Amino acid sequence: MAKAKSADGELAPIIIKKVKKGGHAHHGGSWKVAFADFATAMMAFFLLMWLMGSTTQEQKGAISEYFNNPSAVPGTSTVPSPTSIQGPGGASTSMIQLGGGMELHTDAASEDGPPKENVTVSDDAAEKRAEQIDAERLNSLMDQLKEAIDAREALAKFKDQILLDITPEGVRIQIVDHDRRSMFPLGSSKLEDYSTKILFELSNIINNVPNRISISGHTDIKPYIANNYSNWELSADRANAARRALLAGGLPPEKVGRVVGLASSVLLDSAVPDSPVNRRISIIVMNRRTEEAIMHENGTLLSVQPPHATDPESAPVAEAGGTGAPVGGAPAGGTPTADAAPAAAPAAAGGAPSITAALSQYELVAR
Question: Contact at 8 Å (CB) between 173 and 164?
């Protein structure tokens, strides 16, 4: 230790203090977490400001309505019943329904004017709109079928045997026999190979619409002579063979609404009862009215027909393959009988009868 002289001549100690410098302790990265939270909050804030600036007054009212009355289950509400103070409540079918809660955001002009009445859609208007959509869908199906018959090889070769038209029951597809080419061997219910290919192609097209189908089998006037087996059983078996081919082609089983055998009761060419065109399979893609009539099983399709359809002068000359005798050849409410075909013959004398005329004959036989 060095010493220095003081003022009085005495030696005073000199103290030298040495400080050793070392590294600072690690402070951690907690400030980074705090800064990230701050940046996230600012981003969310400015995003909210941008969204609020870009929404309309109606959308703001809808958002406000949702937060006032949220509900995860349609038809239930977490708030009390609607009152004159609270306004309309209850759950919405969507999370945010535009136009809801507008009582919170109204301008002075609307408050001074008369209150607006709630616009409600009547059942008749809704039913009419549903039928219009169904008709447009079936018309589109008709166009698809016409295009497919011309474009697809499996259908184009036999286009002279495929008949298309629209009946009061829906879109009707008829596959008829030709002079030198039949869908089935004589007296058999086994499909020929070309017939199976046609049905496969048709199943793919029919599957494009949700409508159900009706399948009916028809024969000519020539009687089928066998023990307990007539044209009624044969036509029903052929209709079921067509059903199986459609299902094998990809048609869901639940889309088949009805399968019937009509024997020779509804002739396509009544002037020539034994003509090959009378031997046919008729597939009807049913409209809503026909589906509802079948589901009610009321035994008649009078409700399907439009009001003017029952007029003999204005009734369309069209066979309805989706109605008639039940599978197996039984008339409505009766047992299989071969006498039903002659009973309907007078109705066919002046042309192909309507479905109501055929059903009237069946009911008379059943009685």
Answer: yes
